[in-house]
């Protein structure tokens, strides 16, 4: 049964009750009795000396190997690649293993699941499957707490505390799409959130959203950058000032494009912060108050090998906090640029840019893969949203949602930008549309490609 | 294993020479000193050669470039892996673990401590900045004491080596003394001397210019981790695998290895696993035969038949140390070797077993120590199962039970247990938890202090270290895990491991403890509590893991203590205790305890009105210790 559909058919009173119950469940699971302990330990690790951090990381990886040898999939791989789970240098053992692809994980999910643990006492989790079918797996309570602790650690550094009311712009369908009038939001008091419906956010309704944020004095807005980018665009276009109560803006789950970042910061007059993380817990990057983004070296073991000549690096991780579904050298499919690949201490690797996904590449006639396509639109302030679609190598469709002031000059600037970046190596067709489709989880993908990346 | 000593101060050099004499029993295979005039620092070591018995491994050891000098007591079980990591940048001259520590220090500094899997007390003098690093292993297997006087800083494996240090004010620490009466050992860093402190297990300090410049913890028992929902089969398999790995690691030795074998589950399991890694006939086992029947066995089942049964089933040669009961109550020998007034004659069992092993040419003994502290096994772990009932009872009922406890006969074991349970009924759960570790309640101990001490308001509190430890544990920690945390942190470190080390070293034998392997402890702390104490069955998951390895009759053998029938002995008039150590004159001269209160306690104990045999023995041990350590001349 589709629970979301069932929920949407309920009378409003029951919807609110369901959300309250769900909020309570989430709070107990996510911030249960062990959370404070995990959070405290997570904060203490920020103060670790490089040597102590090395020891911590080695001990986590070593413990992960020992638990993982019970998983049939990993028992086979350890044998195949002569991995010794008891070795004193676990990183040397890790290097013996091949990169684990998402497809491998999907195909062998049952064999990866660790029979050392009683599955009915583990948390069930699924990835959103932005680029394909989602993955369902299990994790321990501590694994969930560790993920939330590292996120809260980053938020607390920014000045956000758990008591702050959060205006959340997520992808969940919370309000029936047929509803034409406010409220386009629901409250979740147990998680201290106002859950705004992204599906109802439009040029006609956005003022109601802002008014509600002001009425509830929510100091913190968090959401998908595409959604907050749209809200920001309308605020700029209509000259609507931000609610004065808003002090923090954070985004996650999607790549924050330069375009969206500029928009949000201009509209709210506040810096926008982001973190990068995965439900699989194989990697996490957090942004510091000074704007720099670092790999959270204590959260997982992240490898950043070069992906292409443009300097982009793959994000490959090992999720040592979740022995129930161990992943070694898991290729997230995401790309980034980093200052260094040498790990030594809590803040040793700065992430200069999160480029998006490996699939987010445009393939030119000469076979070159072009990443960071958000740079094409970075200075186009009159473009509301954009998406690149490709089904044939060397050809692409740029779908553009015009802003209210979009004109001939913008059109010419876009053409010049395309010419500059791709020349004759890609035949680009620009199409104007009223809106862009989202994925099932409400995310906006920058590149929709029907071609497998090489 | 070795004895180590170091001093900083004007008399450092001569102190090192004296220390080698007082620590000679810890290192019969060699001795050496080092003196750094620039820092007025001396290091001394007496050596029991286990790894690399050649002269290349002699201590104190300095690296070829003259950057650092080390003295070290212990064993590093992962030294070969560390050596591989370091060999590209350090040219080794020996094959043992000491030089690996030195190279690791030069590579990682103090951070190297977190990389060690082993047992150790070490000191490294860094010639570059004239600093001294001191560290003790995470579980406290190896002892290390520190003394700060007006003119000197000194450290040693045993307190007796510190006695000659100039300006040593031998004032007593009343709180420390109170601990020995209450627990039979001193939990935490206190000793009977005010100025001598035990180095906390898992801690390191850096001394510079004769003063402590930095202290940090590099290890704590990981009870703050989440308990994982293991399946029974998975947990048993993993436990067996980790213990097997630990045993294999700890067999690393260039000297012959033997094992304790009492016929209980812990020691039999260690022997069974060790045997699989050795050639037939390579492992000799040792046990003790005390003729308890002469004095009554007081509930201590005789181990010998079980030890014989286990040895036969495992095909091991069993050596039996024959000991007459009177040798087990040689209190002066007990206290001298223990270095602290620990009133547990069971410690002497260890000495006689190790002595027999040494006579058979064995220098290293594997022990089952720690199994009860990690996987449960003591009666207090069973008693914890009744905690919920106390919580259900109304407070008036609990108070009534508490009053009733004073009328309970304490002559027999069941009476003592009910008395203790009832007495603790009205306490908070935290106090009750601590009460399980105490041999006598605080008011009873307080009455024993002399009138001067009581009237001066100097009666010490004795539960502070345990309360502080409980407060460090995160909210929601299971009661059993709280108890096991206290167990390993104090009862194991300050009592069992102290007497295991001191008594074995007195016989020139190194004891190794596979149950305290770091990987095994990490795993054990993450097991659900009911896998450890399953109703009234202790070590439930451990028993399951040993099925097929240890004979079933040993697996299901009820737990018995490793002790002596002290209560029976104390009921018989013990002339030396009453007429010498605890005589009215002796007590008045020492000024610590009230003679009337002490003699009243002895009478009531003999009459069976109270159970105070161990406390009386502790009082005697304190007096003996004072004669040996306080009254003795400095040199």
Describe this structure in words.
- In chain A, helix 3 crosses helix 9 (141-158).
- Chain A has two domains: 31-164 and 219-358, ANL, N-terminal domain (Rossmann fold, 3-Layer(aba) Sandwich), CATH 3.40.50; 362-449, 2-Layer Sandwich (GMP Synthetase, Chain A, domain 3), CATH 3.30.300.30.
- Chain A contains 13 helices and 20 strands.
- The longest helix of chain A is centred in the first third of the chain and has 19 residues, at 12-30.
- The model of chain A has no long low-confidence stretch (mean pLDDT 86).
- In chain A, the strands form four sheets. A twelve-stranded mixed sheet of chain A has the order 4-5-3-6-7-8-9-10-14-13-12-11, sandwiched between helices.
- Chain A is globular.
- Chain A has 454 residues and is an alpha/beta fold.
- Chain B is α+β, with helices and mostly antiparallel strands and 635 residues long.
- Chain B has two domains: 2-217, Glutamine Phosphoribosylpyrophosphate, subunit 1, domain 1 (4-Layer Sandwich); 221-441 and 459-561, Rossmann fold.
- Chain B contains 28 helices and 17 strands.
- In chain B, the strands form three sheets. A six-stranded antiparallel sheet of chain B has the order 2-3-1-9-8-10, with helices on one face. In chain B, strands 4-5-6-7-11-12 form a six-stranded antiparallel sheet, with helices on one face. A five-stranded parallel sheet of chain B has the order 15-14-13-16-17, sandwiched between helices.
- In chain B, strand 8 (145-148) and strand 9 form a beta hairpin.
- The longest helix of chain B has 28 residues, at 479-506.
- Chain B is globular.
- Classes of the chains: A alpha/beta (454), B alpha+beta (635).
- Chain A binds chain B through residues 33-34, 36-38, 40-41, 49-52, 54-56, 58-59, 62-63, 66-67, 70, 86-89, 115-118, 121-122, 140-142, 145, 323, and chain B through 78, 81-82, 84-85, 108-112, 114-115, 117, 218, 224-226, 228-231, 234-235, 237-238, 242, 245, 474-476, 519, 522-523.
